[in-house]
Amino acid sequence: MMTKSPSKIQVYIRDGQLLPVSEYDSQQLQEAKQGQTYNLQATGKRSNPHHSLYWVTLSNVVKATGRWPTAEHLHNELKWACGYVKMRWNSLASAHMRMIDSINFDEMDQKEFNQYFEMSMEKLAEAIGYDPIETDIRKQK
Fold first, then answer.
1. Is residue 26 part of a domain?
2. Which range of residues forms the domain containing residue 117?
3. What's the number of domains the chain is made of?
4. pLDDT per position in the chain (141 positions), as tens?
5. Most CB within 10 Å of its CB: which of 83, 110, 115, 137?
6. 120: domain CATH number?
7. What whole-number distance in Å separates Cα of residue 64 and Cα of residue 73?
């Protein structure tokens, strides 16, 4: 049986300090050997493992709670709750309409996804009463 290699630890810089991108990254750093040296490489593109973590987490929450019909429904609700919407004028209806933003790789860079991910996981934890990332990590052990 082949074991899956762990995702790379992702960090971002704020006020000169390296901070973990997600709860998963935070836990990986806490478990790292003291004095360990890392080679950092700036990324300009989106992280597939981070994106996958988002969707796996949403799917697990849908299965565990039954509060949303699908992960896509939960995803759309989270984007609304986090304010990822734009106003558009619909000339046919002569009305302003709110359109949900996309987290598509071409529409949202990694920095913005990091912000969205953290905000959405906070909103989700508030809604369900537990940290969905922490729960997912415990299940993997």
1. no
2. 46-140
3. 1
4. 333 334 578 787 888 888 887 777 788 888 888 888 888 877 667 788 888 899 999 999 999 999 999 999 999 999 999 999 998 898 999 999 888 999 988 788 889 999 999 999 999 999 999 999 886 555 544
5. 110
6. 1.10.3790.10
7. 15
